[in-house]
Design brief:
single chain; 176 residues; alpha+beta; Nuclear Transport Factor 2, Chain: A; 4 helices; 23% helix
């Protein structure tokens, strides 16, 4: 008789456990193109609120993050990270685009613009790799990001949420 118990913090356990609807974040994996695009847009919309607590609810309680050179896990750490981020990165506005998807994983490219307290504007370019549990909560986020100083006249990302004309499936983020 096997008396070993599954580890409730393991990815396998999270995939088998169905949470109450309040802890689910549809669309749920496995993703199709339409649902992957919906997930990307939902993430963009949440991040553009600049509300760390609201954003953290899209992640599992033990979500693992790599953001640039920082590594951390858990919703409390996510809230702490985002709070500090949006204190530094003023007037932050983000655009995400689906790059690829398979099963419970999504790859995204993104751009955001913000300025620092001295008024210097930046456009940040990045890629993210996401992994989700069966409840649609992100369990892993890996982000690589590069920052480019820009002038206010070079800004091109305006409006939170994204304007309707930019919400079409074939809309592409400009590369340069």
């Amino acid at each position: 008789m096997d008396l070993t118990f599954p580890n409730p913090t393991s990815a396998a356990w999270r995939r088998r456990t169905v949470l109450p609807m309040s802890e689910q974040r549809p669309p749920l994996p496995p993703f199709a193109e339409e649902t992957a695009r919906q997930k990307v847009q939902a993430a963009e919309d949440a991040w553009n609120t600049r509300d760390p607590h609201q954003v953290s609810l899209g992640y599992s309680v033990d979500s693992v993050w790599r953001n640039r050179h920082e590594f951390f896990s858990g919703r409390a750490a996510i809230v702490e990270f985002l709070t500090a981020k949006w204190r530094r990165e003023l007037d932050y506005t983000l655009r995400k685009a689906l790059w690829n998807f398979h099963g419970n994983r999504i790859a995204v490219r993104f751009q955001y613009e913000c300025h620092d307290s001295g008024g210097q504007w930046y456009r940040s370019y990045g890629n993210e790799l996401w992994e989700f549990d069966d409840n649609g909560l992100m369990t892993r986020r890996e982000a690589s990001i590069n920052d480019v100083p820009i002038t206010p006249e070079e800004r091109r990302i305006f409006g939170r949420p994204r304007p309707d004309e930019e919400r079409t499936p074939d809309y592409e983020l400009p590369i340069f």
